[in-house]
Specification:
This protein is an alpha+beta fold. The chain is 36% helix and 22% strand. Bound molecules: guanosine-5'-diphosphate and magnesium ion (MG). Residues 555-786 form the tRNA ligase phosphodiesterase domain.
């Protein structure tokens, strides 16, 4: 271990006990303040140790008020002292350049210091290794340990590599465990092993293994070894090392990164980007420097490779590959891939298991004589030739969306669709998307003026606006600053409220002068609470071609200029030159003066769910479009029931559920379908009875309560469901086996397949897997009607 004694800082029981208290509180939705976290408990094979893993919601890392920023954290309780201890500590979550205020170059220049250590962003999956005092070695992935899940099987492969290394140097697991325990440290490595799972970049044959890239102290606040010490440790324990280089000046660092990005490669190899390690402070007045990372991801050719991989999988599955960029070359690639799979019959099955991705890609590139640098040039040329854009504000009420949109139409004569002007009953989202698409028939740019504050709204636009060669640009009104988010939200609240109350009745749905102040504030607050910031690392937001960050507090004039400037830079064909300051002043002024809404309608606020409420207020449409009647099941109860069933079951039974979780395929809400309208012909009287019950109630009220017991978890590799028994006889269910669908493997498998699985109507190779829910879990759910217009 490192000779540097100063690094050998031990855990303070009081600090860790307090941390655990805060984490535990945050697992309880009702008590959680501003963030929540998920706890999973694991027992370590062959010992009587049990450890807890703590997982924060990804978006919460952008907040400043988390008790720790560790991404990957396991704790245990020392039975002798009763104190909690950190067993494994990952890096503090770090962000990409420009992703958050702290990763803008301005901030980096002022608040970080050398040495800047750069490592290539490795491209496998992260593995943590640490030890317990009795010499038990822990090898785990970000949030799990053992052999009980898809993700955890990474841990198992990681463990095999560790054993191989130990055999090489003739040392034992216990040696490594105690070394790490005594140093109060976690070793962090990247598992790169294409024979197990292939990622985008290549690690075959003797390049495979565990690449040690960090050693963290097991402390609440992030503290990590220098790369030099990491290398020393790697040598001592036979890990693979990762290359690093050092920069002493921020200017050199930036120059290096931007030059490397031009080719997407370094040292002759394609790389995904770099991680930069340095010291940072919280601001010019902060005397303390702490360890701090950020990353600099290259955009191309990596993004294209990822697109190819996704398209290839679609091709194999017989789906229509979807892609927005590099059209020409992607089409050619897919033709090549189709031919390749015809010739290599076994290759497609292997590809689905993530084998041969790189081989296929290289074969194509070679045949075409293309390099990564050529692809980057292609991307730039393509951006220059874009002719259609959809501007998507991501905002809350009163940020100035409409003001900016209106000014843009003044300046450029672009299209502007306001959700608030759409009066269609039902299918409103589709009507809105269609209106946007229609605008693009004759105009180059349209603004999809709606709050789009939730990812599902963004997803819906991506799904429903299909215009050839159109790109999406986010106008992201940023609602966090990573420093003191609560204070920032207060300032946003104040600014937007002031504007909205000054706006008076000049709005379609938020008629501030005639509605009570509290009611309007309630509606606005609902949007603030549900706001999901842009996360370009995953879908749907990864589909944006450009994200323009705006400040909700700043004047719309300033935001307008930011939008125009960035569009001009990225799409010079569309915004050929910057308008003059006078022209922008005039456009904003016109926007203030001229704009009066053409329609007015109501949003009710009682539960801060404007959409739902709005639908319910459409009394006249009430009977007609009911899709199904259901008993809703509280999410936490269902999740607990699954956890309870799985924790009592053998390990191999858990992987399907983990797979659903890891791929975000667990449904966001759970219900038992009582009666789907497709069964109406068989039970017309029952439908009538339910419909009558529904129409007799006030729209907001549930139809009644139903007692339910959850009995059994069942899955078949495509779908997972819980068999439920309805204990209240007045609620008759038309399904042979009443159940809650938990999730399906992918979007091609419809939730209703659960029904076929449970009734044994599917012809299958395998039997269903099933586990009883110990003791059965009872709850009382509300019965309600779900409308046809509702989108998932
Ligand atoms: P939206 O809800 O995001 O569409 O916000 P609007 O564009 O409708 O703006 C809300 C209110 O604030 C309107 O009355 C605007 O005229 C006003 N507003 C927008 N931008 C500014 C600004 O920069 N300064 C001031 N004082 N008011 C603004
Ligand atoms: Mg508006």
């Amino acid at each position: 271990m490192s000779a540097d004694i100063t690094l050998n800082k031990q855990q303070l029981p009081k600090e860790i006990n307090t941390l655990l208290h805060e984490l535990n509180t945050a697992t309880d939705k009702k008590q959680a303040k501003g963030f929540s976290c998920k706890k999973s408990s694991f027992s370590i094979d062959g010992t009587d140790h049990s450890v807890d893993s703590w997982k924060f919601a990804e978006q919460d890392f952008k907040k400043r008020d988390l008790p720790t920023f560790a991404r990957g954290l396991f704790t245990w309780r020392d039975k002798t002292s009763g104190n909690y201890r950190i067993a494994v500590r990952g890096y503090d979550k770090f962000f990409n350049i420009n992703e958050v205020p702290r990763t803008k170059w301005d901030w980096i220049e002022q608040n970080t210091k050398a040495p800047y250590e750069l490592t290539v962003k490795e491209n496998g999956c992260i593995i943590f290794i640490s030890g317990l005092p009795d010499g038990t070695l822990m090898v785990c992935s970000k949030h799990s340990i053992g052999s009980r899940s898809e993700e955890a099987s990474h841990a198992v492969v990681g463990e095999r590599w560790v054993d191989k290394q130990l055999a090489q140097i003739g040392r034992t697991r216990k040696d490594l465990a105690l070394t790490l325990f005594n140093a109060n440290a976690t070793a962090v490595a990247e598992l790169c092993d294409d024979s197990f799972e292939e990622h985008i970049l290549e690690y075959e044959g003797d390049r495979a293994g565990l690449y040690l890239h960090g050693i963290n102290l097991n402390l609440k606040d992030f503290a990590t070894y220098s790369m030099e010490e990491v290398h020393k440790f790697a040598d001592e324990w036979a890990f693979r090392k990762i290359d690093y280089l050092m920069k002493e000046k921020v200017a050199d660092l930036r120059k290096f990164l931007e030059e490397a990005a031009e080719t997407g490669s370094w040292d002759g190899k394609d790389v995904e980007g770099f991680v930069i390690r340095c010291k940072a402070r919280n601001g010019p007045n902060d005397p303390d420097w702490h360890d701090w990372f950020f990353k600099f991801k290259f955009e191309e050719p990596y993004l294209l490779y990822r697109q190819w991989r996704e398209c290839t999988k679609a091709l194999i599955a017989g789906r229509q590959p979807k892609y927005r960029t590099h059209k020409g070359i992607t089409e050619d690639y897919l033709k090549f891939a189709a031919g390749y799979f015809t010739q290599n019959k076994s290759a497609s099955a292997a590809y689905q298991r993530n084998h041969g991705i790189i081989k296929l890609r290289n074969a194509f590139l070679e045949q075409r004589g293309l390099t990564g640098a050529d692809i980057i040039k292609d991307a730039e040329a393509e951006a220059g030739s874009i002719t259609k854009l959809i501007l998507v504000p991501i905002a809350t009420i009163g940020c100035g969306k409409t003001t900016v949109a209106h000014a843009l139409t003044k300046l450029f004569n672009w299209g502007h669709q306001q959700n608030d002007n759409i009066t269609t009953r039902g299918k409103k989202p589709l009507a809105f998307a269609t209106a946007c698409a229609m605008s693009l028939v004759n105009l180059p740019v349209v603004i999809a003026d709606r709050n789009n504050h939730q990812k599902r709204e963004r997803q819906q636009l991506f799904d429903d606006i299909s215009v050839q060669d159109a790109r999406f640009v986010a106008l992201h009104y940023v609602h966090y600053d990573g420093i003191d988010d609560r204070a920032l939200r207060n300032r946003i609240r104040q600014a937007t409220r002031e504007r909205v109350f000054a706006r008076g009745d000049n709005h379609q749905t938020i008629q501030a002068a005639s509605k009570g102040r509290a009611e309007i504030e309630g509606i606005m607050e609902g949007f603030m609470n549900r706001f999901q910031p842009v996360d370009v690392e995953s879908r749907p937001d990864s589909l944006f071609d450009l994200v323009i960050d705006l400040d909700p507090i700043k004047d719309s004039r300033e935001n307008l200029e930011t939008v125009v400037r960035q569009l001009h830079q990225k799409y010079p064909q569309l915004v050929k030159e910057m308008p003059t300051a006078e022209a922008m002043d005039a456009a904003i002024k016109a926007s203030f003066e001229e704009y009066k809404p053409a329609v007015k309608h109501e949003i009710k606020s009682s539960n801060n769910q404007p959409k739902k409420e709005q639908k319910k207020s459409e009394q006249s449409a009430k009977k007609i479009d009911i899709e199904y009647f259901s008993i809703s099941a509280p999410r936490q109860i269902v999740i607990d029931a699954i956890d309870k069933a799985l924790s009592a079951a053998p390990e191999e039974k858990r992987s399907f559920y983990y797979q659903l979780m890891n791929t975000k395929r667990v449904q966001p809400e759970f219900h038992i379908t009582l009666f789907h309208r497709s069964a109406k012909p068989q039970y017309p009287q029952l439908w009538e009875k339910y419909e009558k019950l529904y129409s007799e109630k006030k729209a907001e009220d549930p139809m009644g309560k139903a007692k339910v017991v959850l009995q059994q978890l069942v899955w078949d590799g495509r779908v997972m469901a819980i068999v439920a028994k309805i204990l209240s006889p007045e609620w008759e269910c038309t399904n042979e086996v009443p159940h809650i669908t938990i999730g399906t493997v992918d979007r091609n498998v419809k939730p209703k397949e659960a029904n076929d699985m449970l009734t044994g109507k599917l012809k299958k190779e395998h039997e269903n897997e099933q586990i009883a829910i110990p003791g059965g879990i009872e709850f009382v759910g509300t019965v309600k009607a779900v409308k046809h217009s509702r989108r998932p």
